[in-house]
Design brief:
The chain contains no helices and eight strands. By secondary structure, the chain is mostly beta strands.
């Protein structure tokens, strides 16, 4: 059974260095029920989601407007990578 969180967190993370992975959070953020991730509707290129070793050849592909959820306890364990500077994701979770 899911435990409700005390508050909602949300944000966006953009690709600033194409071809280089980027953490969703630089610090530990303990989540109650995982996270919902959506590729921004303005994205031009594909993005890839995964762990610290994510690449464009091994990550979970996500295209503009598409969403996915991850049952994970720490937001900082998630990384994104892509080719389009300014492309990115939004996220929503409870803590």
């Amino acid at each position: 059974m899911n435990t409700p969180g005390d508050e909602v967190i949300h944000g966006q993370r953009l690709i600033t260095s194409p071809g280089t992975s980027r953490q969703l959070s630089a610090t530990t953020v303990t989540l109650k029920n995982g996270v919902l991730i959506r590729a921004l509707s303005t994205n031009v290129d594909k993005l890839y989601i995964g762990g610290p070793n994510v690449t464009k050849s091994n990550g979970h592909q996500i295209v503009k407007g598409e969403s996915t959820s991850l049952a994970i306890k720490d937001l900082s364990a998630i990384y994104i990578i892509g080719d389009g500077a300014g492309d990115g994701i939004s996220f929503l979770a409870s803590v």
